[in-house]
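Submission checklist for the structure archive. All mandatory fields must be present; incomplete records are returned to the submitter.

[x] Identifier: Gene transfer agent-like protein
[x] Organism: Bradyrhizobium cosmicum
[x] Residue count: 134
[x] Sequence attached
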Amino acid sequence: MTSPSLELQGAVVARLKAYPGLAALVEARVFDRVPEKAELPYLSWGPEQAISDDAEGITGFDVTIQIDAWSRKVGLPEVKRIAEQVRLALTEQELALDDNALVLVEHRQTRILPEPDGLTSHAAIEFAAFIEQP
């Protein structure tokens, strides 16, 4: 049986890499461990949390994930465009899981964060998912 959070990560990464609105912005640069010399802009897998939320006869998990967008273009427009495409990619159409049942994915918030180097723009895009395990 596949871990719900692992299966969700696989589905999310596949969707982000295939989503047309992101292809022109980040191509297939979606990482869980960013290579040392990664070309910007790109997306990275941020913090996640899985909390058991069982009900009678149902094994469920509330999973919170964060996708981080990174850009070095001057100003914030590019990172904001990327963040919006991430939101659309994960909320416009259902994600399919093979072993578990993804009940819902909701966008929680997008935070635009200044980076200490003064050059990099960062968006933290947070989602909540509920997954049932058979």
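[x] Structure attached
Curator remark: The mean pLDDT is 96. The chain is about 30% helix and 40% strand.
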